[in-house]
Write a structure and sequence with these properties.
By secondary structure, the protein is mainly alpha-helical. It has helices at 6-9, 14-18, 31-47, 65-73, 81-96, 102-115, 124-140; strands at residues 2-4, 23-25, 54-55, 58-59. It has one domain. The strands form two sheets. It has a two-stranded parallel ribbon. Strands 3-4 form a two-stranded antiparallel sheet. β3 and β4 form a beta hairpin. The longest helix is centred in the N-terminal third of the chain and has 17 residues, at 31-47. The two termini are 29 Å apart.
């Protein structure tokens, strides 16, 4: 089975498409899927030490989407504000990615890292802010 977006079908040779047994439209990822994709990319950056995994002495553990929504709804003053800010920025990045493909989402952390002025930036918030500006730039380059 080969899955294409409608736009991709415009660029694929019709003879190739005719050979596919099933042609199915696969839309862009949902907000939850976008969040989980970006979260997994960020977890890898934390695991490898590209980003700092400790804020205020606490290790940074990124929640899944359902837990994040619950955490944001029940956040208290005692909760680690630095972690909460990271989670909010990650969700904001996922929201900004609306309409982008999963493949584009996987490239964003690399593009954001390349956009940083120096390679040794380990601050997750600075990285996420850079990624949000990278997302906005990428979206502006998509033809209407």
């Amino acid at each position: 089975m080969i899955e294409f977006s409608p736009v991709a079908l415009d660029f694929v040779d019709i003879a190739f498409v005719d050979r596919a047994d099933i042609k199915a439209y696969v839309g862009p990822p949902t907000l939850q899927a976008r969040y989980e994709i970006l979260k997994s990319c960020m977890q890898e950056l934390l695991r490898t030490g590209i980003l700092s995994s400790c804020q205020d002495g606490d290790p940074l553990i990124l929640p899944n989407y359902a837990s994040l929504i619950g955490n944001l709804a029940s956040a208290t003053a005692e909760d680690s504000q630095s972690h909460l800010n990271i989670f909010k920025h990650l969700l904001e990045a996922a929201q900004a990615c609306e309409g982008l493909s999963g493949r584009s989402l996987r490239k964003l952390p690399f593009l954001a890292h390349a956009a940083l002025a120096h390679i040794q930036c380990q601050d997750p918030i600075k990285f996420l802010l850079t990624m949000i500006s990278t997302i906005n730039r990428e979206r502006s380059e998509i033809p209407d």
